[in-house]
Give the backbone structure.
Amino acid sequence: MSAPASPRRTVRLREGDRVGARVGACDGAAPDPVGAEEFIDALNEFARAVRRARGASTGAGDRGLTLSQFNLLEPLGERGEDSVRGLAAAAGVSAPTATRTLDPLERSGMVRRRRSATDRRVVTVSLTPAGRAVLAAQRAWVAERQQALYASLTADERDGAARLLQRLADLVDELSAGPGG
């Protein structure tokens, strides 16, 4: 008679993404159902927070950017101008998604789009002075929040935090690619 299977927990990072993990079945390590359950619950809460953040403003008031907009515009802070395709690649989204993200930013006067003079298929994007101000304010706010989090960590937490965050980023990429990716 075989041992009963441990409970199955599901991790969701976005609608349709599901990863199940058997509690206590961790690379041959001794089962730790309590610690594993707590970890899976925290991972699920992290995934929910990521989903909530996709459309939420990052704190610059009425003229703030969503996190998606912020990530798309970040490269323009250094480059000054880039193609929609280049911005999309840097943000890890498709060109049509970048275009949809840029639409309200152009309407609100934060970015300017224009066709390339040398290749009419290419659309270039640049920040307006208002867009530069909003991006700079949000960069400062995000950096402040990141520094505050780091400062709040204990020495032990700091020691493993970078590795754990990289592993979480790798997991998100793996889930985004799907089972066949």
